[in-house]
Design a protein that fits this description.
Number of domains: 1
Shape: globular
Strand content: 35-45%
Largest sheet: 7 strands, antiparallel
Strand order of the largest sheet: 3-4-5-10-9-8-7
Radius of gyration: 21 Å
Structural class: alpha+beta
Number of strands: 11
Order of helices and strands: HEEEEEEEEHEEHE
Number of helices: 3
């Protein structure tokens, strides 16, 4: 009888330990990076992204995207976690999307982001301008507009997109997308085209 009781106690203790471990390992909601009323958002460590007055938080989006590797047919799958905000000063809302890429593989790295630079919160970001249709069929961008519509808002047919991105390290991408109603002839490329990746050999990462 004592043996059976000890066995059950052991099983209960083991299951409790597993549940505690799983709870501890559960991912923190990405929306926790924004606190209501805050004027700053931190997507990567202590690097601040100023949040101007007037932006209203809508929701978070987590979506998987396919990257492109230089000189390879492989397509790494990454996860983009985003916070969506809107500003309702016109007939159609302006949209702000703050994103961080969570790489599923630490083997592949992002290639250097060249181009025009601007400073945000004391850190350099690459800056580009594109256009984007609210009816985009892109798997990533389409989800953002779905969230906007689900919140009861009607997006403009076309948006001008100011996109700012930064690589704090070569496996982490931070991105700011500001969408304002308007039309541009240069369409925003898909994730894989916008952020090409490479798989460096072991020599390049060797330390001496």
């Amino acid at each position: 009888m004592n043996t059976l009781l000890n066995h059950r106690t052991f099983i209960f203790t083991a299951l409790s330990a597993v549940l505690i471990l799983l709870s501890a390992c559960a991912p923190t909601p990405f929306s926790d990076r924004y606190q209501p009323g805050a004027d700053t958002v931190f997507l990567w460590r202590n690097e601040p992204i100023p949040l101007e007055p007037g932006w209203r938080y809508v929701d978070e989006v987590s979506t998987h995207v396919r990257g492109e590797l230089q000189d390879s047919f492989l397509t790494p799958v990454d996860e983009i976690r985003s916070l969506i905000f809107v500003r309702e000063e016109q007939e159609h809302p302006a949209i702000l999307i703050l994103s961080r890429v969570v790489k599923t593989s630490q083997v592949d790295i992002f290639r250097y982001l060249g181009g025009t630079k601007t400073i945000i919160g004391g850190y350099p970001y690459r800056e580009n301008a594109y256009g984007l249709s609210a009816n985009s069929t892109d798997p990533e961008y389409g989800q953002y507009f779905e969230k906007i519509r689900a919140s009861g808002l009607v997006p403009a047919p076309e948006y001008k997109v100011r996109i700012l991105d930064r690589l704090p390290v070569d496996t982490t991408l931070i991105r700011i997308m500001e969408l304002t109603p308007g039309k541009s002839h240069l369409t925003l490329p898909a994730y894989g085209k916008l952020y090409p990746q490479e798989r460096p050999d072991s020599i390049r990462h060797r330390t001496f």
